[in-house]
Amino acid sequence: MSKQVRKKTDNPSGPNHEENLVEPSFADAMRDLIGKRWGAVWIAVPVAIEGADPEGVHDVRVASRRLRAAMDVAAICFPSSWYKPLHRTAKTITQELGEVRDRDVLIDALMADRAAAPPEEWPGIDRLIARIDRERIEARAEMERFLTELESSKVPDEVVKRFGGDATAPWRASPTDVDAIGGAA
After folding, report:
1. How large is the C-alpha radius of gyration of the chain?
2. Structural domain tally of the chain?
3. 161 located within any domain
4. pLDDT in tens, the chain (185 residues)
């Protein structure tokens, strides 16, 4: 049987918070998993910013949803004073990329509809595609601003501090670290 430790948690029920028993192995496993999930987000971010591949946005969203799921489960393991802001950031990443991804998917569906539609319907579909593409361009500019600010913020360093080297952002890593996390060509 593994040894249990008492871990103080922030419980909104009052100043005398109840203590929960947390298996050290669970907390360690979650720290490692969350570090890897942050690492996956950081690897996908530059591709999303570049914009050459629409799947780059999708990859960041998938990675951030996986990160959020792990962070949801692990909330009891870590002090909320630093954990909650990082958890909120993970949620914000998913939300900020949603507008672009939704429009990418909608444009793809409309293009398929246009291909199957009779030629007399093409002008209407083309106008709708053009409108959604303009919205996508605006949403993309906002997403790029958000991700660029996130890259240069203290968040990547805080993530490494809390979750270890697997959470290192490639743009903050030494060349040796980049090779180790799969970011080198």
Report:
1. 21
2. 1
3. yes
4. 444 444 444 444 444 444 455 556 899 999 999 999 999 999 999 999 998 887 899 999 999 999 999 999 999 999 999 999 999 999 999 999 999 999 999 999 999 999 999 999 999 999 999 999 999 999 999 999 999 999 999 999 999 999 988 888 887 665 454 455 454 43
Structure tokens at 182: 């799969």
**Rounded to two decimals, what is the model's pTM?**
0.75
Residue 37 within any structural domain of the chain: yes
Say if CB 64 and CB 43 are below 8 A apart.
Answer: no
d(CA 161, CA 143): 26
Question: Which residue stretches of the chain are H helix?
Answer: 24-50, 55-74, 80-116, 122-152, 155-163, 175-181
Identify whether 113 is part of a domain.
no
